[in-house]
Amino acid sequence: MTARVQRQLALLVSVAGAMTVALDGTILLVAQPSLQRDLDASLGRIQWTSTGYLVAVAALLVIAGRMGDRYGHARLLFVGVLGFGAASAGIALAPTVGWVTALRAVQGGFGALLQPATLALLRLAYPADRLGTPIAIRTSAIAVAAGSGPILGGILVAHLGWRAVFWVNVPIALVIAALVLAVRTPPSTPASSSRLDLTGAGLLAIGLAVLVHALADVPSRGWTTAPTMLELAAVTGVAAVLAWHERRTPHPIVPPAVARSAPVAAAMAILLVTSAGLFGALFRATFYLQDTLHLDPLACGLRVLPLTALMILGAPAADAALRRHGARRTATAGTVLVAAGIAGLSRLGAASPWMAMAGAFAVIGAGFATVMVTATGTVVGDAPPGYAGVVGGLKQTAMNIGPTLGIAVASSATGSAVSTMSPVLLVLAALAALGLLPASLLPRCAAHQQGGDTTAAHSATAPTLQAAPARQTNS
Asked: Where is average pLDDT lowest: 60-69, 217-226, 376-385?
C-alpha cells in the first residue's frame, strides 16, 4: 500500500473509532426509559449505567494513552474496540440492571483504551503541518454520529427493543478491528521514560474517578452536601500526593515534556471550559424545552439540530481559519462564539421566536467546532516525540470532565419555576469565556507557517456531542 492509502486508512480507523463511542453515548439516551421498565429498575440504578461508564473512562484514559506510547497504539486500539464490542454484547444479554451497570463500567474501560489511540494514529500517520484536515473530518464525523444517535436509537428501540442499541456495536467493532490490522503507520519512538509508573497511575486513576463521580452526582446531591464536599476534599488530597510523587519519581505518569508544554496545557484548558459551557447549556435547554415549552423529545431534538449542523459545517471552515490566522486567533474567535451563543440562550423565553433559539444554537455549534479543531490540532500536533498517546489521553480526559462539570453547574437551577432558559446560563457563558485566557497562550502564527518547524521538532508520529442528561462524552 502507498503512504497515501495508509494515511487514508488510518484516518478511516480514527474516525470510525471516535464515531462508535459518540454514537454509543447518544443512542443510550433513548434506550434508558425502556431499559428501566424492562428490568424494573429505579431511576438511580439507571443513572449508574452512565455514571459507571464515565468513572471508568475518566480513570483510565491517561493510563491507556501511556500504554499506547509504550506498547503501540494500533495494538491498544485493536484490544479496545474488540473489548468495547464484547462488553456491548454482554449488556445486550444482561438479565438484570446490576449486570448492565457492571458491564457498562467494563465497556468504559475498553473505551478508554481505544479513545487516545484514535488520535495517536493520526499523529503517527500525518506530518504535524497536515493534521488540520483529518482532525476537521474527525470532528465533523463525531457531530454526525452524536446527532444521529437519538434518531437511530428511537428506531431500534421502537422496533427491536433497548437491547438492539447495544447489539449494533458488535458488527461495527469487528469491522474496525479488521481495519486496524491493515493499518501500517511509522512506529512511535518511545521516550526514555516510557516505563509505566504504577503508583502515579493508581493515584491519577483514583483522583479522576472520585472527581467525576462527585461531579456526576451533583444534580442529585447538590454542591454543598457532605458527600460532595468530602469527595472534592479527597480529590484535592489525592492531587497533592500525586504532584509530590510526580516530582520525585524518575518515570512520571505525565512526562515533564508534556507537563511543561504550554500549548498542550492551554488547549486542554480551553476544551475543558468550553465543553463545560456547551453541555451545561444543553442540559438546561433540555429541561426548558420539555418542562417549560412542553415539547416532545423529537421536537426538542429538532430545536437543537442547528448546533449539530454547524459543528459539521464549521469544522472544515475552522481548519481553513487555523491555517490562515493561527491557533491563537482561531481559538479566541471560537471561544467568543461559544460564550456569546450561551449568553444569547439565557435571554430567550416562551414568547421568543424559534429562529432566535436556532440562531443561538448555530453560533454555539460553529464556535465549538472551531475550538475542537484548533485545540485538538494543537494537542496532537505539539505532542512531544513518543508521547502522542498520553497527550491524547489528557485531551480525552478534559473532554470527559468538562461536560460533567458543566452539567453540575447547570443542575443548580434545574427544576426551578422559570419562564426563560435561566440566569445560570450566564454563569455557563462566563465559564466558557474563561477559555480566552489559555487561548492567549496558543501559538500566534498560522499553521502553514509553523508547520515546517513543528515537523522538524517532532517525528512524524470532539463534543462528543450528545444530549446532556446521559453525561457521557467523547471527542
From this structure: 376-385
- Burial annotation 187-219 (CB, 10 A radius, 16+ → b, else e): ebeebebbeebeebbbbbbbbbbbbbbbbbbbb
- The x, y and z cell numbers of residue 10, run together, are 488510518
Look up residue 231 and give its amino acid.
Answer: E
Please provide the DSSP assignment of 332-394 as one string. HHHHHHHHHHHHHHHT-BTTS-HHHHHHHHHHHHHHHHHHHHHHHHHHHHTPPTT-HHHHHHH
CA distance 288 to 270: 27
Is residue 275 within 8 Å of 398, Cβ to Cβ?
yes
Instruction: Give exposure, 263-289, as e/b (b: 16+ Cβ within 10 Å).
Output: bbbbbbbbbbbbbbbbbbbbbbbbbbb
119: its cell numbers: 488520535
CB neighbour class for 249 (10 Å; exposed up to 12, middle 13-18, buried from 19): middle
Q: Which of 62, 388, 406, 390 is nearest to 208 (CA)?
A: 62
The pLDDT of residue 65:
86
φ/ψ (deg, to 5) at 349: -135, -175
Helix axes 354-381, 388-410, angle to 10 degrees: 150
- Phi first, then psi, for residue 190 (nearest 5°) are -60, 135
User: SS3 breakdown of the chain: % helix, strand, coil, rounded to 5?
Assistant: 80, 0, 20
Please return the burial class of 139, using the count of CB atoms within 10 Å of its CB with bins 0-12, 13-18 and 19+. buried
- Asked if 46 and 34 touch (Cβ cutoff 8 Å), the reply is no
Q: Nearest CA to 292 among 471, 432, 413, 153?
A: 413
Structural contact between residues 402 and 272, judged by C-beta atoms closer than 8 angstroms: yes
Quote the crossing angle between the two packed helices 43-71 and 97-125, to the nearest 10°: 30
pLDDT band at 190 (very low <50, low <70, confident <90, very high): low
As given in the structure block, the three cell numbers for residue 209 are 474517578
Q: Give 101-121 pLDDT, tens digit per residue.
A: 899 999 999 999 988 888 888
- Output the nine-digit C-alpha cell for 471: 453525561
Residue 426, exposed/middle/buried by CB under 10 A (0-12, 13-18, 19+)? middle
Cβ atoms of 109 and 218 within 8 Å: the answer is no
Q: What angle do CA 19, 315, 137 make, to 5 degrees?
A: 45
Question: 158 falls in which pLDDT band (50, 70, 90)?
Answer: confident
- pTM of the full structure: 0.81
Distance CA(471)–CA(364), nearest Å, equals 19
Whether 116 and 396 have beta carbons less than 8 Å apart is answered as: yes
